[in-house]
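COURSE: Structural Biology Practicum
ASSIGNMENT: Worksheet 4, Part C
STUDENT ID: 0417
INSTRUCTIONS: Below are two proteins. For each, the amino acid sequence is given first, followed by its structure token string. Answer the questions at the end about the second protein only.

PROTEIN I
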Amino acid sequence: MPIQIKDAATVAAKWAKRASAAGADYTSGVNNPRTDQAQAAAAAAPVWAQAVADAASRNAFAKGVTAAGSAKWQAAASSIGAQRYPQGVNAGVNSYATKEAPYLSALSSLTLPPRGVKGTNNARVQAVVDALRKVKLGQ
């Protein structure tokens, strides 16, 4: 006898109803994790690397993107993403400033070689690249 299973629309509706009412549970879980998130994530680095390698060997990323298609991304980004983007930017402004400060400091203390004629200013570009790379690598 086949397993009795509800149809996908019914299951999805129940999931949406229950999940959308779980905001307080979500917050509680974030504030009271069973294990430290950062330590657990760092400890899982070898598993992550293995999973990424496996996905790459199966070309899973390209297959998933192709299966979803541009229309799905565009519809979600232009509706849901557009509504949430300003809120996310405002919530992240302090983090952005903190992370950006070392780069701005490096650029503001940089003395570039003098300008030359068009096509001869690569040393100026390289000086900027080198300074920003040092910040990124923590040097």
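PROTEIN II
(use this one for the questions)
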Amino acid sequence: MIEISSLPEPSILAERWEYLAARSPHSFFLSWPWISTWLHCVQPSIKPMLLTVSSNGELLATAMIVKRTIWRHLIPVKTWVLNATGDHRFDNICTEHNGLLASANHEESAWEEVLNHFSMHEKNWDEFHLDGVPPWLADAWAKRGLPLRPSRQDVGRFLDLDDVRATTNCSCIGLFAPRLRTRLRHTIAAVERRFGKVAVSEAADLDEARSFFSELKALHIKRWGDRPNGHAFDRPFFERFHHELIARCFADGLIQLARVKAGSVTLGLLYNFVYQGRVSFYQSGINYAAADRGDSLGLLVHALLIDRNAHQGRAIYDMLAGDAQYKRALASLTTPLWWGALQEKQLKLRAEKLIRCGYYALRRRVR
């Protein structure tokens, strides 16, 4: 049975979410710490609702969904959004490994019920927007003969830290291609020659975590501040959300803020999530001003954090989605992810598609 309802009292919602979380393999982006922080930070004008899947009175799966009208090419599109708001001002926190929080062995059957509900029973909607979900969801919708509006397909890249622990020196450098190994060893030797010994430290308390995050922000903006598409801290909600997340989660060991220095010089900082043995790299600030020709400070900072987390007994180092060269170089394992929308058969959506295709065709001709 599918139910879409207003949110219950916070204590009841937390109890239900944590009940399923204890029975569900899921990412940090579907954990109660992430979801509860998101609910705390979103604007009061945004009204998330609770999607639940149950059978014979047993709760099998749940998710947050928001319904809103999005104007696109002068066309009003009635949209459901999964675990996000549908408003770009608040959706820049980049949720991925997304989906239903479903008890073990019920994810596909729960999604099957959700897709059946939206294709056959739910009324007065145009799109169901999904960010960072498994691609088989889009395939399952298309097999029903229903349209899709894909916006991005990508892979999440990760390392198995057992492979690091199995190397002779218990270092990830031994896993990399010869050229990358040489580059990392050159970088270590060069920065130690100029500045002093390389060392990794993690924030020891909440005040230091906040200080590391501020230092990371400054380095990130220094590197990406002039980029035409902006940088991660461009929108106020991003920083507000993460300050709240750090405040709520640091004491529980879910936040890793680490700094790599050579002597007294900071080389870079990483902001990671640590959840159920999985370390997810989320954001960085690299001091490119400290780099000399041939140095790869970003690769070095990651390599040192990979080794540190391997020594601490964690299972996976997840670079998350993105096709950046450094992710391809460091992480050999992948999982596919899909961004886009499931659509109803609506005349206005077909019209929008024709408008969009015509626009891009005209732009190509002009070019």
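ANSWER KEY EXCERPT:
Q1: The longest helix spans residues 347-366.
Q2: Residues 2-147+344-366 form a domain with the Aminopeptidase fold (CATH 3.40.630).
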